[in-house]
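ok trying this again, last paste got cut off
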Amino acid sequence: MSSLIQYCPACGQQSFKPNSAKSFLCEQCDFILYFNAVAAVAAIVESEGHILLAVRGQNPGKGLLDLPGGFIDHHETVEDGLIRELKEELGLEVGPRNALYSCYMGSFPNTYTYRGITYDTVDMFYHIVLEHKPTLKADDDVAALVWVPREEIPMEKIAFSSIRNILTLYQTDYLAWCTTS
């Protein structure tokens, strides 16, 4: 990353140097730019013993499987980001009327390489149970949608390690995530 950033965003001088593993320092004006993990959210959407997987329509991982979700926007809560992403990608409006159950499952670190730059992310996951499989339409950066039995998740076709990690946890301890009490 050190070769990508040479000019200070505060003073414009070409005096930006690595300061630590996650920051750069301007030798002219002492401005420090920090690189922290980017927040992302996704959901295991479940209905009738199946989970919903999205076929990625763009790189990274074009053609591989993913959970519906995406990056959190500025000034947005994680929950609002998930609701927005589900609507953008699936046309799914999640709320108390159609979700029998929803809970936060946990998070995993991940990397996301886009146009030659690798971003460190922290991916947060929710479990949402719907009473019936809704009619959905792949949109935004999703090429297609597939419902798969929860016992038959094709891990070798999952795009990201964080998604494989949460799906493995989900499969291993399914009953912990499926109780509505």
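PB: full thing came through this time. The radius of gyration is 19 Å.
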